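S1.2 Input.
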Amino acid sequence: MRLENLHVDDIRSSLIAKQYSAVELVTAYLKRVHDVNGSLNAFLTVMADEALEQARALDSRISSGENAGPLLGTVIAVKDNILMKGVRTTAGSKILDTYKGAYDATVVDRLRSAGALFIGKTNLDEFGMGASTENSAYGATKNPWDPSRVAGGSSGGSAAAIATAMSCAALGTDTGGSIRQPASLCGVVGMRPTYGRVSRNGMIALSSSLDQIGPVTKTVGDAAAVFLAMAGRDSLDVTTVEKQLFIPQEILGDITGMRIGVPKEYFIEGMDPEVEKTVRKALKQLEKLGAKIQEVHMPLTPYSLAVYYITVVSEASSNLARYDGVRYGSKLPRSSTFREAYRRLRGDELGEEVKRRIILGTFSLSQGYFDRYYLQAQKVRARIKHEFTKVFDTVDCLVAPTSPTVAFALGEKFSDPLTMYLSDIFTTPASIADAPGISVPCGFVRGLPVGLQFMTAPFDEKTLFKVAHAYEQATDWHTRMAPLA
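S1.3 Output.
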C-alpha cells in the first residue's frame, strides 16, 4: 500500500486505527515531492520541517484519544497566493520574492482545525494571471502526462501536485477557471465554490468580485470533504454568507430523473473535435445513470469572456497598486525621485502579462472610458447572471466541456495573449454568474486528459457534487495514474 495514494476517509480511519503514523504519512509525501517535483516545478516552497512537526503533534493528539476532525491527517498543498503565517508567499511574482505571510488565511485556519497537515506552496501564474502557469516568475509547471506541455493555470502547480500524488489535496483559486481548467488538463478534480461560500481572507486578490478558493483532489468525495471544512461565513470577509451546507452522505446515491442541461453554445467551432466526441460520450454515460439530458440555449455565453476580461483587468489594476515597494515585498530602489524609483521597481519586477493587464485595466477605468467599458461589462454581467437563473428553472445542473482543448505545448500560446485567453472560454460564464462549478476527468485524447464540467445554481453545491460523484463512480477515469505518478 502506497500511503500517498490514499484518500481523505482512508487516511482518517487508518490513523485512528494506528495502522501507520502521521509522521510516516508525511514522510511518504515528502519523498514523492523530492522524487517528482524537480521534473514538474509544481512546488515553490516545500515545508518539510513544518510538515513533520505538524505530524508529530497530530500523532500525539491521536494517542491521547483526541477527536482531531474530519480531515485528520489529510496532507494539503496550498497555492502560493494564499497566506500562511511565517511562510514565504510570492504569488508567483518577483516583487514578493521575500514576502512572508503575516497571518494564516481563514481557509488555512479552518483546514488546520479539521486536522489537515500542510506540506508546501504551489506554483501559479503571476498573481493568478494566466491559463498555463507559464507566467510564473519561477518557471512554468509542466504537465504530468507529458512534460513538454502545460499544466494549465493559474493553479497549475496544485493540479500537477495532485496528479502525481505529491499531496492528498490542494488549494487553488479560481477567478475565471483557474482551478477547473488545470484540473481538466492534468486529469484531476477541481472545484470552484459559489462566490461568497468560502472566505477570501488571506488570499492575495486578483479580481475581488470574482476570486474564490477551492479544492483540487483526485476524487469528488475528497473535494467535497475539503470544501465542507472550508465553507461558511467569515466575519473577516464581508462577501461571505451563512447558507446551509450538506452532509457528506447526501452526495451519494443515484441521479435518476435529474434534469441535466447541455448548453449548445459550449460546443463551438474551433474546439478540438476529439474533445467534443469525448464529452458527448460522457453525456451518454449520464443518460445511462438515469439523468434526463436536454439541450438548453444560453445566447449570452459568447459575451462572457469579454465581460470577464474587462472586469478582471480593471479590478486587478486597482488591487495591484498596493505593491509599491513601501509595505509589501521588494523595496523601492535608490533613485533621484520617487516616481522614477516606483517606475523602476514595477517595471523590473512585474511580469509582462501583469503589466499588460494593469495598463488595460487602468485604461478601462479612466475618465471617458469607464462607462464604455467597465460599466457596460457590469450591465452585461447582470444579464448573464439572469440567464443562468432562468436556465436553472428548467434544469438541475448544466454540463459542458471544461476546456476546448487538451493540454497544449509549452510556449505554443505564450506569445499570443488573445489565444491564451480563449482557454477560459467555457469556465468564465459560471464565474460571471457567481455559480459553482466542478471539473472531473472524462477520458483521454491522444494520451492527454479531458475534463467534464458541471455547473449548478448558486449555493447548490450539494447537487453539483452529487452529479459529479455519480458520474465519477460509474467510470474509472479518476483511477488513471499519470506516468510520473
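S1.4 Remarks. The two ends are 14 Å apart (CA to CA).
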